[in-house]
Design brief:
Length: 117
């Protein structure tokens, strides 16, 4: 019989350097909670995907999500492993997040939000 070691969080290797979760939730424009889709997320996330691909870095990825619970703040995205939430509004905001944070490892402070639970 062999003993199995207990893994800690620091023992588990990172798969990706950065993993972006972007909310694609679409509700009708009159829905009381709003949605990232109704706030114009789709073209931003399409650009985000293309910009990430253009970096050529296979260790930076984006995953489309449903509602992340902060609908009024949309469009929103969160970057892991840092757990940083961003609220981009323009294609240029997306470009800056990709270049500065995803590739460069530095926060884009003016776009950071702290969602309230």
């Amino acid at each position: 019989m062999t003993e199995t070691a207990t893994l800690s969080l620091t023992d588990v290797p990172q798969v990706y350097k950065r993993h972006v979760f972007a909310c694609f939730q679409q509700r009708p424009p009159t829905h009381p909670r709003g949605s990232c889709g109704a706030a114009g997320a789709q073209p931003l996330w399409e650009r985000l995907g293309k910009q990430i691909e253009a970096t050529g870095q296979r260790d930076i990825v984006m995953t489309a999500t449903g509602c992340m619970g902060f609908c009024q703040a949309g469009p929103i995205m969160v970057v892991y492993p840092e757990g940083v939430w961003y609220q981009p509004r323009t294609p240029e905001d997306v470009d800056e997040i990709v270049t500065t944070h995803l590739v460069g490892g530095t926060l884009v402070e003016r776009l950071v939000i702290v969602p309230r639970i």
